[in-house]
Amino acid sequence: xxxxxxxxxxxxxxxxxAIDSDTRxxxxxxxxxAPWLIGLLLITIGxxxxxxxxxxTDYNLLENPRFIGTDNITQMLSDERLASxxxxxxxxxxxxLPIQLAVALALAVVLDRGLRGLAFYRSALYLPSLLGSSVxxxxxxxxxxxxxxxxxxxxxxFGIEGPSWVxxxxxxxxxxxxxxxxxxxxxxxIFLAGxxxxxxxxxxxxxxxxxxxxxxxxxxxxxLLSPIIFFNLVLGVIGSxxxxxxxxxxxxxxxxxxxxxLFFSLYLYQEAFASFRMGYASALAxxxxxxxxxxxxxxxxxxxxxxxxxx
Amino acid sequence: MNRRMYAGSAAxxxxxxxxxxxxxxxxxxxxxxxxxxxxxxxxxGADSRTQRTLEAIELFESEHPDITVEAQHSDxxxxxxxxxxxxxxxxxxxxxQFDQLYLAxxxxxxxxxxxxxxxxxxxxxxxxxxxxxxxxxxxxxxAVPVGGTPNGVLINKSIFxxxxxxxxxxxxxxxxxxxxxxxxxxxxxxxEVRGVGPFGGDSFTLTVWAxxxxxxxxxxxxxxxxxxxxVASYWQKALDWxxxxxxxxxxxxxxxxxVPLEQGxxxxxxxxxxxxxxxxxxxxxxxxxxxELLIADWPTDSATxxxxxxxxxxxxxxxxxxxxxxxxxxxxxxxxxxxxxxxRIFGTDRGVPGxxxxxxxxxxxxxxxxxxxxxxxxxxxxRIGDAPAITPNGASDIETIQSRYxxxxxxxxxxxxxxxxxxxxxxxxxxxxxx
Lengths: 311, 435
What we know:
Chain A: Pfam families: BPD_transp_1. Chain A is an all-alpha fold. Chain A is built from 14 helices and two strands, in the order ααββαααααααααααα.
């Protein structure tokens, strides 16, 4: 029952009955929500509040936290490794995410043509998304892009002797980006579902008017798919900023070679558990939350110019 | 996708919520309980160590029917994360295997029990004084060293033979002999095999290098005292090997970071010589059964200080200050270090045991590889110098920092001198911050 309906009910004989049924509904709702709410409070909100407090302390895990005001924030300003980890993370998000989404969209459009055996291709292409963030694949990646790895064996066919891609500071981040692009399956499946929602008549009508495939893609597919693109973009940005496993495994937990794969979350982890600076790490965690929040807000703000809701 | 972040922040915060749990228990009136108790024993290591340790636990339980020992084990990298979080939540294992990197960090923060309060149950008198002292922080015994190992050079003689290069006289070799031999291997094999492997990223070789030049990393008060030029010369050595072709390339070196020993360049026959803790000889020998593997003391120069070698404690046993059963914990450690049957079960898996009685107990039925390790350690022990100060509180991440700066030097981002200076500054500021 809407708020307006409730106001109306107040003035009529339905009042008592309405409140009774509302209370019952509310109780049932609370009952069904409880498992989620308790989880949210205990596992998310509570710890977040605690970490907000820790962000203003010097805490080494073994002794009680000591309140130090804004010292952690001051320290961030002159922290060179923080700056370099932000550089790495932003490069990763800005380069690998657009490529991943472009690949996902391109394949979704191809698959949407109604290929024979679509179900098979869809599953096969989705597979990397299931595996991509696993430890096993990250370990495999190290082997594929190592000096003696599969990738160099492939280059060897053309007589090219490749370097060790994971071990050079110039290319290590690239291999992790490639791993991320490779997990294009998840956004692809969402794009496919979105493409199915676009009425076929639009294509038929435009074809009659003489529009080519590219023109159709630009003027029909893209605008009608823009809410889906937006959705994938927001999810992708949030996920990529927090990326941890791949960098951790590929670099053996160091962020190396020479900090070239020191992702923000990896740096946060090192500060917390290798250097016992949990207070500073908590402050970093909040910085990450602010960055992700701001990025998301900016995307929502820009969406009114490019996301087209067909209403 | 969000789950990872939740898990991260949850871990941070769970640690925070319950973070105030560390309180040293009263040390008066420690006695064995009349009731059955359960204590936890926590260690890192490979499968073979797990099997051996479980066997020792079974033996202990059969002699102490009232004590149940619960085993916890993991690999090295996850071990310290978990110990930190369980300690923060007041749920630390009663007895934990320890490394000297972390000993002072935990002891100075009140997380470990003063073991002299357990002297009734835990007898450490069999350990040589020099070794026992390596478990002390500021004069208090917080951990019992299990054994010690010197650093040595592993030599794959089969590779030397294959390429017709003569192995230098290992008793008298100089750094020049070493460099020449390494370069010959690389040349004779056309770069297929390199003369020498990783050197520059671990604090053990850095310490031995420093001691060869009359320096120490830290002093007794826990400050960095090494001259940056010595660290620079140590890294310059690695760069020289790369330039001359004697050593693995920068990329090959960086590729080895975090790779298990069995897959490292030594074990896979990619290098002819490699620096290694003596205790790792057995693991290598097992990983390369078709090669003849030698181990020797470091090369020296005429200017090299005597007594540069020392026995680095391979690991320790320590008791959490939050334990509810200190007496039982003490009895367990006593059993692990003093019982000869345990010594035979462990062999040299945790390094050559520091307890002479245990060394004797295992001497008879040693495998050839264990025999070599034992002999090497014994021969070095005759000419070791004073033990260096242990890694101070606030510097337990020295190896991560060291390998980070070493990589920057390797890839030419910093000169060895710049790298050395920044590396030592960062260590010192970590120590200052922990005070």
